[in-house]
Amino acid sequence: MIELRTPAEIEAMRPAGRFVAETLQTLSEETKVGMNLLEIDRRAHAMIRAAGAESCYLDYAPSFGSGPFGHVICTSVNDAVLHGRPYDYTLRDGDLVTLDFAVSINGWVADSAVSFVVGTPRDEDLALIDTTERALEAAITAAQTGSKVGDISAAIAAVARGDGLSINTDFGGHGVGRTMHGDPHIPNDGRAGRGFPLKPGLVVAIEPWFLQTTDKLVTDERDGWTLRSADGSRGAHSEHTIAITEDGPIVLTAR
Ligand code: MF3
Ligand code: CO
């Protein structure tokens, strides 16, 4: 079911958006070569407690994961791109890191992700991150009242294909509200002019993610959660929660 939020409800979603933005900003600045993924999770958990926020991940047990996630942030490194479950791994020079983070505050959720490199970056990793960020920007620009979900999808796909990447549509954007994952689904590929009409009050997470040389994912057998590229190539992911209004999109998780 698709729910539309009143302007007052969108205002009430701002604290969650702001907290998710600030936390990702702080954690991406603090994350350096030599830092352990479990340390990032502990830092995020401490910030959640201090803010009186509630994690959307800790007890999350959807069909696409194995049991409760058990951590408050996704840390996906190199060939891991989505749902990276933090584990005892110390970051090395040149690692490509994605942090994906969602909480609720006063019952309203915000969800956002950012990718970056620690230490000396490889050009192709910076290019991949840049593609996901430009795809997200194009998608937000397309998220106008009167357009359709397919316009968002097509905007993402055009940027990816323009940069020679293939697209996996198994995981994509989603409605955001009292819970993290609601309707509509927003695939990272689709046809302009098709799909659900974008109306004022629709709040969605848009999340382009791409892999360097494949569109196939495999689930990490060790944790039953982390999604890695099938060929070992690296992935990047960029996500914001936005509200569609008469006056254009509001990026609730803008950093
Ligand atoms: N925040 C992710 C998304 O962008 C979902 C992560 S689910 C988790 O939709 F359980 F892995 F944390
Ligand atoms: Co999301």
UniProtKB/TrEMBL annotation:
Binds 2 divalent metal cations per subunit. Has a high-affinity and a low affinity metal-binding site. The true nature of the physiological cofactor is under debate. The enzyme is active with cobalt, zinc, manganese or divalent iron ions. Most likely, methionine aminopeptidases function as mononuclear Fe(2+)-metalloproteases under physiological conditions, and the catalytically relevant metal-binding site has been assigned to the histidine-containing high-affinity site. GO terms for molecular function: initiator methionyl aminopeptidase activity; metal ion binding; metalloaminopeptidase activity. InterPro entries: Creatinase/aminopeptidase-like, Pept_M24, Pept_M24_MAP, Pept_M24A_MAP1. A divalent metal cation 2 binds at residues 111, 174, 207, 239. GO terms for cellular component: cytosol. Residues 11-246 form the Peptidase M24 domain. Its EC number is 3.4.11.18. The keyword Metal-binding applies. It is an enzyme of class 3 (hydrolase). It catalyses: Release of N-terminal amino acids, preferentially methionine, from peptides and arylamides. Its cofactor is Co(2+); Zn(2+); Mn(2+); Fe(2+). A divalent metal cation 1 binds at residues 100, 111, 239. Keywords: Aminopeptidase, Hydrolase, Metal-binding, Protease. Removes the N-terminal methionine from nascent proteins. The N-terminal methionine is often cleaved when the second residue in the primary sequence is small and uncharged (Met-Ala-, Cys, Gly, Pro, Ser, Thr, or Val). Requires deformylation of the N(alpha)-formylated initiator methionine before it can be hydrolyzed. This is Methionine aminopeptidase. The gene is map.
